[in-house]
Amino acid sequence: xxxALARACQDxxxxxxxxxxxxxxxxxxxxxxxxxADDGAGDATSMVESLFADALAMAFAxxxxxxxxxxxxxxxxxxxx
Length: 81
What we know:
This protein is an all-alpha fold. It is 63% helix and 0% strand.
């Protein structure tokens, strides 16, 4: 399997998985960004939550994920001649 194709398929799987992980809230973060609306911390909380979802989705996809990347790469790789 071509490494560039495998990486692209993993990136695609991470994009598919990201909304699922975005729904999760890290326990260390406040429950709502509205709690800190007056001190500007709400923006930082939203950014950290977004970065957390991105990192978690990418790590999950790189570790094998749901198998979307594997199936996609098999479907897209050129047939052996």
